[in-house]
Design brief:
Elements (H helix, E strand, L loop, with lengths): L4 E6 L6 H12 L2 E4 H7 L6 E2 L2 E2 L1 H19 L5 E5 L4 H10 L3 E8 L2 H9 L7 H11 L6 E4 L5 H15 L1
Parallel strand pairs: 1-5, 1-6, 2-5, 6-7
Antiparallel strand pairs: 3-4
Helix pairs in contact: 1-7, 3-4, 5-6
Length: about 170
C-alpha cells in the first residue's frame, strides 16, 4: 500500500497558512503547493462569483495542482496544499481528484489579527482584502480547526505535527 498522504491547510488571509505550510513541508520532507500561485499563474482570478474568485476557477486550479501533486504522491512523497479554500466545494473537488490519505486543517484567527499579520508582510493584500477573505473563509469549518490567534507559528506547527503523527 502507498503510504503517501497530503495535507490541506486552509484559512483566511493572515491566519498563518503559508508560514505553517512551508515549515511543515520542510520538516516532513513534503512537496509544497500554493493554490494562490496556480490561480495567478494561469490567470484564474478574474472570473468572479458573489464577488469572490469563482468556484469554476478553483476547480480549474485544482485540476492543475492535483495533476502536479499526483506525480509526487505516486512516488510516496507527502504533499502540502496551502490556500484560503473559501468554497467548501473547492476542498471537496481537490479531495475527489486525489485518492490518497489526507487531512484538512482550518487555521483560525480574528479578523484584526489577520489584518495585523498581513500588514507585517513584504507584500500586503490590504485591510479590505483581509476582511473580505476572512468573512468568506470563516463561514464554515472543515477538518481539524486550529486557533492560531495567540500562538507562535512554532506552536501551531507542533499542534499540526502531533495530529499528523497520529493519522499517518
Amino acid at each position: 500500500m502507498n503510504k503517501a498522504f497530503y495535507i490541506i491547510i486552509r484559512g483566511p488571509l493572515g491566519s498563518g497558512k503559508s508560514t505553517i505550510s512551508q515549515k511543515l513541508a520542510k520538516d516532513i520532507g513534503a512537496e509544497y503547493f500554493a493554490v494562490d500561485r496556480v490561480l495567478d499563474e494561469f490567470d484564474l482570478t478574474k472570473d468572479k462569483e458573489e464577488g469572490y474568485i469563482s468556484q469554476k476557477s478553483f476547480f480549474k486550479a485544482n485540476e492543475i495542482i492535483a495533476e502536479r501533486a499526483d506525480k509526487f504522491l505516486r512516488k510516496g512523497k507527502a504533499v502540502i496544499f496551502d490556500g484560503n479554500f473559501y468554497w467548501k466545494s473547492a476542498i471537496e473537488d481537490l479531495i475527489s481528484r486525489l485518492d490518497y490519505n489526507h487531512q484538512v486543517f482550518t487555521l483560525r484567527a480574528s479578523v484584526d489579527t489577520c489584518i495585523s499579520r498581513d500588514e507585517e508582510r513584504g507584500k500586503t493584500h490590504g485591510e479590505m482584502a483581509a476582511r473580505v477573505v476572512h468573512k468568506k473563509s470563516t463561514s464554515f469549518d472543515y477538518g481539524i480547526v486550529i486557533d492560531t490567534e495567540n500562538k507562535t507559528p512554532g506552536q501551531t506547527l507542533s499542534e499540526i505535527e502531533k495530529v499528523i503523527r497520529s493519522f499517518f
